[in-house]
Automatic annotation (TrEMBL):
It holds the Pfam family DUF4846. PROSITE patterns: PROKAR_LIPOPROTEIN. It comes from Clostridium aminobutyricum. Residues 1-21 form the signal peptide. This is DUF4846 domain-containing protein. Keywords: Signal.
Amino acid sequence: MKRLLTIIILCVGICCLLVGCKGTNNHPAQESPETNTTESHVVSLINTNGQTIAERFDVPPGFVRQESEVKSFSHYLQDLPLKPDGTKVKYYDGREKSGDAYLAVVDFNLGERDLQQCADAVIRLRAEYLYDEERFNEIRFHFVSGFNAEFSKWADGYGISVDGSKVSWISNSSSNSSYESFQRYLDIVYAYASTLSLENELIAKPFSDLAIGDVFIQGGSPGHCVIVVDMASNENTGEKIFMLAQSYMPAQDIQILKGDSEGSPWFSANIEDILKTPEWTFKTSQLKTWE
């Protein structure tokens, strides 16, 4: 009889334990108020109807967006047109990019060739700005071979011939200053320039002097680079934040990077040596700028 009573007590105890485990599983973990506040704060920084960088992304409370002079490169970047919110980055072959490294897509035509990769996107942004301002003499980029591809010469009716390691100018009646011809010029620059050549022609600068239009670049094969497209600062603390754009491999749309795991578009400048972006890690000493 005692043995039977012991068995009954054990069975009741086991049933209680099982019910307790199931009860715990029936109540999802509650997110902390801090996490919810952070997420709603990030969402509030994104204006889904905004059509440019400055319109799409707000600055956090306490920060003021940098004001840029009209016709400056920094103003051009802050005013970059964006595709509708939620648009996916596409590769040159039409495939969509997986992952969540980016928050928006710049509204530029990509083309159907594997050309506009990382350095090419930075080159394009600089070149498009100079073209808009009709500063044709300043549109020039070096190939890896060292050849100086000047758009002003291209616009005068010349093309570029590449025969192995030999690169030279040749007469080409279809080359001119039209936008269509300008895009053909950029295609050949994309094909023969790289992070190595771009790194060599940019000028090093201290991270403490970070500005819109600056480039974090690591030359190599592979290498990578990203460009600063917006900045803001906190008037009380002096903290600076910045926004980055990139393309990547294979050729893909230019995209505005996610600044943290919570979905903010802003990176903090309160860092010492290392800048971590969603797809590459740079040293702050790899910051460069244009002549």
